[in-house]
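Narrative of accomplishments. A recurring question from our advisory board has been how the design workflow behaves on a single, concrete structure rather than in aggregate. To address it, we present the structure tokens for one chain from the evaluation set, followed by the sequence designed for it. No filtering or post-editing was applied between the two.
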């Protein structure tokens, strides 16, 4: 039974009769998500919806990836584009005040090749997502665990290399360095691969009790890259991306997510999804 509160706070000493007057209740049934396996997560939902919800439970053909991680130094990699120069280079300023670790903010011109619109968790709402800043991500897509070799960076992208060299010591001290290959360039990042550069992505925040999915494609003709608090399914077909987003935002899927998830969401939102299936 779920108690749907109509007040913002309750006393632990409240009488049951008083509680019933200020709340609404919904009777639910519970079954294991993995039928017949009592130790699996449990699905709790209105009895009339269980048969429908169980039809959408199973192994998905889609794979979601976590977004790009700077290894704890967002203030270096996250940037604002101040100006596009006549030669195509970008005048940028790193967002030194974001994240737990603060760094100096500098303005510098760099090549545009590795500058991507960055989609943060706060940028996502139901059906809509729009990047609020950019990221400089010189990761080697062929050797995906490492940044582009320093020799190539110095030769082809000297301005971008100079930008990162300004923060070399801070980058070398990142705790995440232990996850990189021993000889990886000091500007190497995590969770960036070929899927990060797909044309379309279905995205949602990795935290929160209520899924809010949206489709992103290119922003200002540049590929959008999610940050590490965003989950993304990478696709190349626009219709398929919108189909998957609609499926994730459908009433049966939302109800499964809300009632089957180990960490429950707000009763108000669960009840809203419940009502939509009546």
């Amino acid at each position: 039974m779920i108690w749907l509160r109509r007040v913002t706070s309750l006393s632990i000493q409240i009488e049951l009769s008083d509680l019933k007057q200020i709340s609404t209740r919904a009777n639910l049934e519970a079954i294991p998500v993995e039928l017949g396996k009592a130790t699996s997560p449990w699905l709790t939902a209105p009895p009339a919806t269980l048969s429908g919800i169980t039809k959408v439970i199973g192994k998905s053909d889609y794979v979601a990836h976590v977004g790009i991680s700077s290894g704890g130094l967002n203030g270096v990699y996250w940037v604002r584009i101040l100006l596009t120069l006549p030669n195509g280079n970008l005048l940028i300023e790193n967002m030194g005040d974001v994240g737990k670790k603060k760094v100096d903010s500098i303005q510098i011109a760099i090549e545009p090749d590795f500058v991507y619109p960055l989609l943060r968790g706060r940028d996502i709402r139901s059906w809509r997502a729009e990047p609020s800043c950019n990221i400089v991500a010189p990761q080697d897509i062929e050797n995906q665990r490492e940044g582009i070799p320093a020799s190539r960076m110095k030769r082809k992208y000297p301005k971008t290399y100079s930008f990162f060299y300004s923060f070399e010591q801070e980058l070398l001290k990142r705790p995440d360095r232990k996850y990189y290959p021993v000889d990886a360039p000091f500007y190497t990042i995590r969770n960036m691969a070929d899927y990060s550069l797909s044309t379309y992505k279905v995205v949602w925040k990795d935290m929160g009790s209520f899924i809010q999915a949206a489709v992103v494609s290119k922003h200002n003709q540049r590929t959008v890259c999610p940050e590490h608090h965003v989950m993304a399914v990478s696709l190349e077909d626009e219709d398929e991306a919108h189909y998957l987003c609609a499926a994730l935002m459908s009433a049966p899927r939302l109800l499964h997510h809300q009632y089957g998830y180990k960490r429950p969401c707000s009763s108000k939102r669960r009840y809203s999804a419940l009502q939509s299936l009546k």
